[in-house]
Design brief:
mainly alpha, 2 domains
């Protein structure tokens, strides 16, 4: 009897995991770790990354999804899908999940628009967000 209960429990847990994956829940364990650099700021560290990879579609001239990343205030405001940066919560921030390419349909930058960000760049963005996105 105990064997049947254990089998059912394992089956139920496996089913829940498959359901979460099918529901489009990104696997946060695949995000590169945050950089250990202290005092990361938008102007000093992040703006150059966004300038090279994001401003074509999310800058002053064009704002796909009404998301603008060319100023700190605009980046923190978010776009038509809400906030993309959650200060203190980098792994939960949609921006990090997008640049880490966790969900194929939401990978940023798109394959035809630019090269993926490096693990180091994603780590720096994570550190910035975890440190309060200042």
């Amino acid at each position: 009897m105990a064997h049947k209960i254990l089998t059912l429990t394992i089956g139920a847990l496996t089913g829940m995991a498959l359901t979460a994956a099918a529901a489009g829940k990104p696997d946060l364990s695949k995000i590169p770790p945050a950089s250990t650099k202290k005092g990361v700021t938008y102007d000093k560290d992040i703006k150059a990354i966004f300038d090279a990879s994001c401003f074509k579609c999310h800058g002053a001239e064009k704002q796909k999804g009404k998301l603008r990343l060319d100023s700190l205030a605009a980046a923190l405001k978010g776009g038509e899908n809400g906030k993309s940066i959650l200060p203190g919560k980098s792994a939960e921030s949609p921006l990090v999940q997008s640049v880490a390419r966790l969900v194929e349909d939401d990978a940023m930058p798109p394959a035809d628009k630019g090269k993926p960000l490096t693990k180091e760049q994603i780590g720096l963005i994570r550190a910035w967000i975890d440190q309060g996105a200042k």
